[in-house]
Amino acid sequence: MDVDTRLLRSFLAVAEEGSLTRAAERVFVSQPALTKQVRQLETLLGVRLFDRSRAGMALTGPGRELARLAPRVLTAWEDALRATHTAQRQAARVLRVGFLASAANEATQEIVAAFARRRPGWRTELRQAAWSNPSAGLATGDVDAALLRLPFPGQDALRVEPLFSEPRWIALPSTHRLAACDTIAFRDLWDEPFVAAPADTGSWRDHWLAADEREGHPVRIGAVTEQPDDWLNAIANGYGIALAPRSAARFYARPGVVYRPVTGVSPTQVGVAWAPADDHHPVVQDFVHCCLDTARPT
Amino acid sequence: MDVDTRLLRSFLAVAEEGSLTRAAERVFVSQPALTKQVRQLETLLGVRLFDRSRAGMALTGPGRELARLAPRVLTAWEDALRATHTAQRQAARVLRVGFLASAANEATQEIVAAFARRRPGWRTELRQAAWSNPSAGLATGDVDAALLRLPFPGQDALRVEPLFSEPRWIALPSTHRLAACDTIAFRDLWDEPFVAAPADTGSWRDHWLAADEREGHPVRIGAVTEQPDDWLNAIANGYGIALAPRSAARFYARPGVVYRPVTGVSPTQVGVAWAPADDHHPVVQDFVHCCLDTARPT
DNA sequence: GACATCCATTCCAGCAGGTTATAGGTGCAG
DNA sequence: CTGCACCTATAACCTGCTGGAATGGATGTC
């Protein structure tokens, strides 16, 4: 008895939403298509999975059982998928490196070049991650190594080597009252609204709000963004200001946004991270050494 | 990224057979269809899974990785399927009872009737299993309880209550030189070819060959059968003789086959079995009690 | 040189799956 | 009561995937 995982995903969406109409939006198909998919799954199993009513779709007992176990099928498939892709990269001599916007900046090129010298025949595949994914895909095995800003959530489960540190500056809309200053004291910004990363990034978000360096003063959030582009827009449009590494002034220059040095906040660190499973993976370790050599030349 | 489990099954078949042509026979599709399925999986993943050659299909590195993990996806799905069906039966008040051909015989009807009295509203679904499946589906969760001949392989992982015992007789082709005898000594049959159960049924097969009661005398196998019908045919056609419970003489009477009492072999036991997980399942336990009450009336 | 044995390709028929539009209940507000 | 909002189910239609049979092409064998 065979299923398409799509049927399971649709089923779970309906089960969670309790409504075909809403689930249809979530999985990006029309409502009649979902009706058919659910019915198809039901005929395949020979089991009624939902009680239909005008109010929506409610799981039956057997439906609950399936809703409990179907996610395992999906994760088993995702695992298989990931492992296959990892093996593929290995065979194709591709090292996947995740990075957050503005992580290593100019150092990145040097690191990649150094790695190319050390491992001729290997290619690096750089993959930029959204801020909602502060381990840049390392936690899920989507990349082999990552260049990150420290600290980040989930750091304890990974290996991390700090590479260098960089002062934090502040990004302001050019119309801001303080935009004219050469240098700004952080305490003068405590009451300003900030553009923040999504809440689920935890300590990483707090770091960029300098939550620990406000002497208990509360943070005002003016906007939440997931990507550099949105972030720049939010600042330019005056929704708030944001701390940023100094290098952002070069890499994320943009009309309407100015960067100024800030006193009273600690610098930020860039690190390279990898999965413990790769502690003895020669290629990954070579990459890590390239990072260290580039950042702290001996 | 969604897959149909059929693709995974096909992929595994090709991986195991090392040949599209052979795998195609095994999964009952044409060879071109398999060619397409494999290619489809490869394009879906963006990974070459096989090295093609005139000799056949050899897994690549990533292919091996997928072959390692794909079975987990399939078993996860089978688990989900089973759990859903189990819940379905529960909701529909159906108790599935597996039995081997000739297990409880006339007692079966009484047991079912007693259960119907004890649990009005519940239905029993009797499911006859092939001899290649001596736990009658209990080991795989396909049934809730089973009426079996003891001992059977895998018995230790299940709960078993013996119900009654019955002398073993011998089934002979009516043309057999001993068919005329009223009673036969088992030692006179040591050199006869026997019709046996498949080899993978282990101790169950041995029990019906009375392997332990031949004083070391080797067993001759005349035929291997999986089902009562084949078994009767094999005996009637003279491929061999076979031990059988006495009640088989009534339930499996057939021209060309005669049953005779045998001296020198121990009786056979019938038992009811259930999964340890159902030790406190009220309905399963009710069924077990019905079995015990019917077999050993107090 | 004929043959066997692989996998790949082509062509065709059938159906599964999607979409839009619409029907058919039911609760709620005016 | 009526119109509306919100469900799910159905109808009609179209596209493209999928599988089967036949065939091709490469290669090793007798």
Automatic annotation (TrEMBL), chains A, B:
It comes from the Bacteria. Residues 3-60 form the HTH lysR-type domain. GO terms for molecular function: DNA binding; DNA-binding transcription factor activity. It comes from Streptomyces cellostaticus. This is LysR family transcriptional regulator. InterPro entries: LysR_HTH_N (IPR000847), LysR_subst-bd (IPR005119), WH-like_DNA-bd_sf (IPR036388), WH_DNA-bd_sf (IPR036390). Pfam families: HTH_1, LysR_substrate. Belongs to the LysR transcriptional regulatory family. One of its GO terms (cellular component) is protein-DNA complex. Keywords: DNA-binding, Transcription, Transcription regulation.
